[in-house]
Amino acid sequence: MTVICLCMQIGSFKAAGLQVGRVYNLWFTDPLGHRHFDTWPLMAILLPTAALGTYTIFIFHNRKVQALFCALNALLIIGWYVCYFVVAKTIGDKTWGTVDFKPLWPAVLPAIALIFYLMARHAIKADEKLVRSMDRIR
User: Fold this and answer.
1) CB-based contact 79:114 (threshold 8 Å)
2) Reduced to 3 DSSP states, what percent helix, strand and coil does the chain have, rounded to the nearest 5?
3) pTM of the full structure
4) Were both Cys, which of 8, 30, 49, 66 would link to 106 (CB 3.0–4.6 Å)?
């Protein structure tokens, strides 16, 4: 989910009904097509989240670390949303003055990933609890 969000447009700026800018995770474009890399913090947060999420899948033999990485990814995604709204507000005001920011549907994908990370963490914790109870029985 986060990889898809990295590759797609996540918002746009509109002034008087006309689109004046497109927002991606690494840059935003102005009406002339010039790229400005003021949104790099979004990429800096979401890229490690995608890499860490992929790595978390393959460390199933160490459930404690896996649960920790799920929690870390959840915190990173929450931080991404905070940064997303701060960047959208500051770039719009700094570049064009009063413009409307419209988030697009790919910006919802990290929220879906957040829900999945929290569900995975809950299941990992339950699995760890079950394994520990089986160890006590032996």
Assistant:
1) no
2) 65, 15, 20
3) 0.89
4) 8
